[in-house]
Amino acid sequence: MGLEFIARSLRTYGIVLLIFLPFGLYYFGIYPTLAVLSGGIWGILNLMFMATLVRLTIRPEGADAGRAIGIALIKFPLLYAAGFFLLKVEQFNAVHLLIGFGGIMAIIVLKVLGRLLLGLDAIPNNHTPAHGSTH
Question: Alpha-carbon distance 41 to 29, whole Å?
């Protein structure tokens, strides 16, 4: 699993949020749904920025310090300030925001469990058995 796993997880969570939107509006109302959606978008952006920072700093040819600092200056103060202000919106319940914030982690855990159960990342066993061999 590499960084493409993160990209697939982000796409999956985006689709989950889009599927949740009409059902959330119908069953939970506008503000709880917007809170989950806002938290989810914040979580997607946060993971996108973290993946970009990893790509820029851990590279065979060396870190791209200028771009990494630029991304860090966007991510840390602006994104976390946005998260703080989301928590301050009176109509948004913190639990709904937390569901949105943490939903990406649930998607990643479910994807990892699925890969584990299906054996998609298993290392193939290329040696012959010792018993009954013709050596």
Answer: 18
